[in-house]
Write a structure and sequence with these properties.
104 residues, globular, Glutaredoxin, alpha/beta, 5-stranded mixed β-sheet, single chain
Length: 104
């Protein structure tokens, strides 16, 4: 998964031709660590249909603030420049599949 920043978010996420899942995380966040392998699995399974990125909220504060990301992990799917689905907290794999599969 690529990392995006406040500076690259618009080009790499909002202007992407494919839907893009963004994992908002921090290096110290244990629940974030728990879902990372799950998101990497989905990125591999859905390669070519959905992009997967990560945004470190400690290094890029503007984007999470604009999007109302109040806790981490928060995982948001964007399509056509708009937020389409959001999953907050460490959830089971099935919850991410349910939230994002309609955008494949």
């Amino acid at each position: 998964m690529r990392e995006v920043t406040d500076e690259t978010f618009v080009d790499e996420v909002l202007r992407s031709e494919l839907p893009v899942v963004v994992d908002f995380f921090a290096p110290w966040c244990k629940p974030c660590e728990r879902i990372e392998p799950l998101l990497r699995e989905l990125a591999e399974e859905w390669r070519g249909r959905v992009g997967f990125t990560r945004l470190n909220i400690e290094e890029s504060l503007g984007t999470p603030g604009r999007l109302g990301v109040l806790s981490i992990p928060t995982v948001i799917l964007f399509a056509g420049g708009e937020e389409r689905a959001r999953v907050v907290g460490a959830q089971p794999r099935s919850r991410y599949v349910e939230a994002f599969s309609s955008w494949l």
